[in-house]
Automatic annotation (TrEMBL):
PANTHER family: TRANSKETOLASE N-TERMINAL SECTION-RELATED. Its cofactor is thiamine diphosphate. Belongs to the transketolase family. This is Transketolase domain protein. GO terms for molecular function: magnesium ion binding. The keyword 4Fe-4S does not apply. It comes from Geodermatophilus obscurus (strain ATCC 25078 / DSM 43160 / JCM 3152 / CCUG 61914 / KCC A-0152 / KCTC 9177 / NBRC 13315 / NRRL B-3577 / G-20). The keyword Oxidoreductase does not apply. Residues 28-287 form the Transketolase N-terminal domain. Transmembrane segments: none annotated. The lineage of its organism: Bacteria, Bacillati, Actinomycetota, Actinomycetes, Geodermatophilales. InterPro entries: THDP-binding, Transketolase_N. It comes from the Bacteria. Pfam families: Transketolase_N. Keywords: Thiamine pyrophosphate.
Length: 293
């Protein structure tokens, strides 16, 4: 007997009520944020702002869209989720724990010696991590090759690639975008987290990338842009992209660093964030208050 797949299959087929889907996803996003805060407290610092900002995107993908088997991360027919921004690993681990691929209690080992959860994602260490991250610009090239391989195998699995707006500075990203469109890889969905910040400062000041949507369209992609912290908008957009055929798709998501925790949303130097010991519980309280509203 085949093991059950994730809930995404039924949802994508339209069998789940939309309001129920959105409620379930929002609750998952809360738990992903809570997981990320718990991991961040282990180190006292890190890329917690990005994890909070992208939690809604990951909740929609893992709760509602991705086809996978938590107990079998290498299932051949799984959809592939590639995290090319390796420093977002804290966010991915939080989502993988929510998905059941990583035991929740293992999150306590984040960034520690001999942990399977290093601070930058490594495919060789962690169940559910498809590629190692680090130098930016590798994710979409790998996604393109992977999607081509799946096509040649006759495998209907989809390939998702989460990348950042800072990663659009990399020429290899745009070379892969051309190749992906040239081959008509409609089994590829890129998701761009536009939080307007990178290591050297605001994205617009480091290298202006706007108009982002127009650029992807010019490269032959079906492109949509939404508020990446609006679960309903994310659901509608990803449903539309799932149905699209003939070209690769990209979802451009405008997110807010620290989303859901007001005391962190306004933090300066938020790319790599230091959080004081007494602030972690306050952050969890604000997060819980936001869920109740």
């Amino acid at each position: 007997m085949n093991a059950p797949t994730s809930p995404a299959v039924a949802n994508a087929a339209g069998t789940a009520d939309r309001a129920e889907r959105i409620t379930r996803i929002r609750e998952a996003a809360y738990r992903i944020r809570r997981n990320a805060l718990d991991m961040g407290e282990v180190q006292g610092q890190g890329y917690i702002g990005q994890a909070l900002g992208v939690a809604d995107v990951l909740a929609v993908v893992y709760t509602d869209q991705l086809r996978y088997r938590p107990e079998d991360p290498h299932w051949p027919d799984r959809d592939r989720f590639l995290l090319s921004i390796g420093h977002y690993a804290i966010a991915l681990y939080a989502a993988l724990a929510e998905a059941g691929t990583i035991p929740l209690e293992e999150l306590e080992t984040y960034g520690s010696d001999d942990s399977r959860l290093p601070m930058s994602a490594m495919a060789s260490y962690t169940p559910g991590v498809e590629i190692s991250g680090g130098s930016l610009g590798h994710g979409l090239p790998v996604a393109t090759g992977m999607a081509l391989g799946l096509r040649h195998q006759g495998n209907s699995a989809r390939v998702f690639n989460l990348l950042s707006d800072g990663e659009l500075d990399e020429g290899s990203t745009w070379e892969a975008a051309m190749a992906c469109a040239h081959h008509g890889l409609d089994n590829v969905t890129a998701i761009v987290d536009v939080n307007a910040l990178q290591a050297d400062g605001p994205t617009a000041g480091v290298l202006r990338t706007e108009p982002v949507t127009d650029k992807w369209q010019a490269f032959g992609w079906h492109a949509l842009r939404v508020d990446g912290n609006d679960v309903a908008a994310l659901v509608d957009a990803l449903d539309e992209l799932r149905a699209h055929r003939g070209s690769p798709s990209v979802l451009i998501c405008d997110t807010r660093i620290g989303r859901g925790v007001p005391l962190l949303e306004t933090r300066e130097k938020a790319h790599f964030m230091r959080v004081e010991e007494h602030e972690w519980q306050a952050a969890r309280t604000q997060l819980e208050e936001g869920l109740a509203r």
